[in-house]
TrEMBL record:
<feature type="transmembrane region" description="Helical">
    <location>
        <begin position="187"/>
        <end position="208"/>
    </location>
</feature>
<feature type="transmembrane region" description="Helical">
    <location>
        <begin position="131"/>
        <end position="148"/>
    </location>
</feature>
<comment type="similarity">
    <text>Belongs to the binding-protein-dependent transport system permease family.</text>
</comment>
<dbReference type="InterPro" id="IPR000515">
    <property type="entry name" value="MetI-like"/>
</dbReference>
<keyword id="KW-0812">Transmembrane</keyword>
<feature type="transmembrane region" description="Helical">
    <location>
        <begin position="154"/>
        <end position="175"/>
    </location>
</feature>
<keyword id="KW-1133">Transmembrane helix</keyword>
<keyword id="KW-0472">Membrane</keyword>
<dbReference type="GO" id="GO:0055085">
    <property type="term" value="P:transmembrane transport"/>
</dbReference>
<dbReference type="GO" id="GO:0031460">
    <property type="term" value="P:glycine betaine transport"/>
</dbReference>
<feature type="transmembrane region" description="Helical">
    <location>
        <begin position="63"/>
        <end position="84"/>
    </location>
</feature>
<dbReference type="InterPro" id="IPR051204">
    <property type="entry name" value="ABC_transp_perm/SBD"/>
</dbReference>
<dbReference type="Pfam" id="PF00528">
    <property type="entry name" value="BPD_transp_1"/>
</dbReference>
<dbReference type="GO" id="GO:0005886">
    <property type="term" value="C:plasma membrane"/>
</dbReference>
<feature type="domain" description="ABC transmembrane type-1">
    <location>
        <begin position="25"/>
        <end position="205"/>
    </location>
</feature>
<feature type="transmembrane region" description="Helical">
    <location>
        <begin position="29"/>
        <end position="51"/>
    </location>
</feature>
<dbReference type="InterPro" id="IPR035906">
    <property type="entry name" value="MetI-like_sf"/>
</dbReference>
């Protein structure tokens, strides 16, 4: 392989390690999805809660903002002290970094619902629960999906760094490349699928977000 250029080495690596790359791609994606899903389970209700109690919004969003200021490697190291090496540490890190975009977008989406529409629902005798699930959430869902979309893009990058704590994923291939002599092709074998995953995830969730946007005449 030493006489081949980088791209030839890249295809050579894929031809002999394609299954391994596919396994790490799947592992990488699942770690990202798990972390973002857990953040959505917590972040969406929390965003709805602070939309009802605006005095708490600055505190909650401020805490989420503070988490974002911590470098990802530092966050991984801190969480590793409690959870040890492996996947759980990365999922928890992704969870924490995903909270801010999900909470902020949920809060913004709920705040942007037209008050006249809410008044119409109240005039029809809807309960608070019915107003939430039949009016507010459907109208705010595209904005909420935008937060989840941003969170997943961030998560894919963080998961790549998670290879440093033994979580595997495409970051593991990148690290192998950095440790190898003339490892440029191996780095590409990890970096290009990571970029592809980010682009596809952003495109798919962007498509869903547009489909969920309220139609205006």
């Amino acid at each position: 392989m030493t006489n081949l250029n980088t791209w030839q080495q890249f295809w050579y690596y894929f031809a002999h390690n394609g299954l391994f790359v596919l396994q790490q791609f799947s592992r990488h994606f699942l770690i990202s999805i798990y972390g973002v899903s857990f953040a959505a389970i917590i972040g969406v209700p929390l965003g709805i809660f602070i939309a009802r109690r605006k005095r708490l919004s600055d505190i909650i969003i401020g805490i989420a903002n503070l988490i974002q200021t911590i470098p990802s490697l530092a966050m991984l190291s801190i969480i590793m002290l409690g959870l040890g090496l492996g996947v759980n540490t990365v999922i928890m890190t992704v969870f924490l970094y995903s909270l801010l975009p999900i909470i902020k977008n949920t809060y913004a989406g709920m705040q942007n619902v037209d008050s006249d529409i809410l008044d119409s629902g109240k005039g029809m005798g809807m309960t608070k629960f019915q107003i939430l699930y039949l009016i507010e959430l459907p109208l705010a869902f595209s904005v909420i999906m935008g937060g989840i979309r941003n969170a997943l893009v961030i998560a894919i990058g963080i998961t790549a760094i998670g290879a440093f704590v033994g979580a595997g994923g495409l970051g593991d291939i990148i690290i192998r490349g950095t440790n190898a002599t003339n490892g440029g092709a191996i780095i590409l074998a990890g970096a290009l699928p990571t970029a592809l995953m980010t682009i596809i995830s952003d495109f798919v969730l962007g498509f869903v977000q547009r489909k969920l946007s309220p139609k205006t005449n």
